[in-house]
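Hello support,

Our group uses your service weekly, and this is the first time we've seen a run hang past the timeout. The protein is Thioredoxin domain-containing protein. I'm not sure whether the cause is the sequence or the server load. Input pasted verbatim:
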Amino acid sequence: MDLAGVAAAVGALAAASAFGLWRKRSDGTVRDESATAERLSAADLGIDLDPRATLVQFSSKVCRYCGPTRRVLTELADQHTVAYLDIDAEEHLDLARRLTVLRTPTVLLLDGTGRITHRVSGPPRRAELAAAVSALASLHQ
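Update from on-call engineer: The timeout came from a worker crash unrelated to the input. Re-ran successfully.
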């Protein structure tokens, strides 16, 4: 292999490593989306919105982390007495595209009006998501 080939291989390895580190740090982070104006309605979701908060999970059949995420969200929904909905992203492709769901699981936390307040790409960090759900649900007690 000549010097240019070695440099290209080293560059590709560095780029892949940087992406891996970024992904590991950002995966599951609960991001504040309250600045966005995106809202979901009962018609979008097929269920009535909870007046306190609604957890929405986008899943797929081949998703490795969707089952564990479903268990976490079910527990959080029960603990905070809020609604939870699991949506198959493949069956609701238009909605997934509209919301820029690029991977599963993707979790959205909605307020009582359907406004997206938080988003998680990948398996959520439980403590972060629990804090966000608690804060939102306590606003409407």
